[in-house]
Amino acid sequence: MWALIEWTEIEASLDIVKRKDILQSVVHEGDVVDVKYEDESSPALILKMNENKDKLLKRLNRMESERRQKEECKLPEKRAIKRKIIFSPENTPSSSPDQVQIKRFKKRLLTDLELLPNRSANKHAVQTSLTSAACSAALQPANSSHLSSSGLDHVEIHKKLNMAKDTFQACGRGGTSWSAMIKDLAVAVFGRSMLATHSLSGKIGNANKESQAKPPLDPTKVELIIDTVSKKFPETPRKFLRAALREKLNDEHKLLSRHHKKDTVTLQH
DNA sequence: TGCGCACCTGGTGAAATAAG
DNA sequence: CTTATTTCACCAGGTGCGCA
């Protein structure tokens, strides 16, 4: 016996769960009830009951499809974050603890990024960067002894850099890649729009003297990011870290330019 | 003079996602 | 299920300044 639900604490997340996972003996459609979510429970709205799981699955897919169509007018980059956290009958929260942890972890990380400007793009960057494998790695304890923990869920890299511990641990494939770490930290600290419009030093590129110099990123924060990665990967030369950061700036700028070009072409037609 | 660096453009392949 | 599209990381190559 199954029920189609919508998690109320998870952004527009539909799900199909076993009846026994609903922690209430008497429930009706439209009720908000506690539903088992791994070792805990989470409130959810009962949308449909008393149908077999195939019917519920089709209903879920139809609802998802309708929601997608409503979102169609949004910017392309929103596509990635539209992906809801969905459990199939074969993959319920209780059947795959790691998956649940990974999804919850992603959710929290994306919530942190809400604070940054251009949050859709930031979210997408994290969504793409953090594959399941990456998140799994992120769930492992990170070697962050050089950092001062300012609370249960936050880590203070410096007075100027304070981010959620999960966010920090997720950077760099969970601390397994210095290049990914410095790029993820840059996105987390500056936001993608700033990366696309700023340069490392603020100096004009010698290869393109006619172009306009981009303003520099906050050098203090840049140094702090490099220091942070350097402490975690002491064998990696700082010039490599700067190169990776510069590359990230290049890529973000390139992507932004492409978007602008595409928008211009769309307006012309 | 050679090297390192900063900046830029363009290309490729992998992975994720959408569409048919 | 297959194909197309998008996004990203990574790489190559070019330019010219600063410095030893």
TrEMBL record:
Pfam family, one: BEN
Gene Ontology CC terms, in alphabetical order: nucleus
Subcellular location: Nucleus
PROSITE patterns with a match to the protein in the record: BEN (PS51457)
Organism (species): Onychostoma macrolepis
Alphabetical keyword list: Coiled coil, Nucleus, Repressor, Transcription, Transcription regulation
Domain BEN positions: 143-262
Residues forming coiled coils: 46-73
GO BP, one annotated term: negative regulation of Notch signaling pathway
Keyword set includes Coiled coil: yes
GO molecular function: DNA binding; transcription corepressor activity
InterPro entries in UniProt: BEN_domain, BEND6-like
Protein name: BEN domain-containing protein
Domain of life where this protein originates: Eukaryota
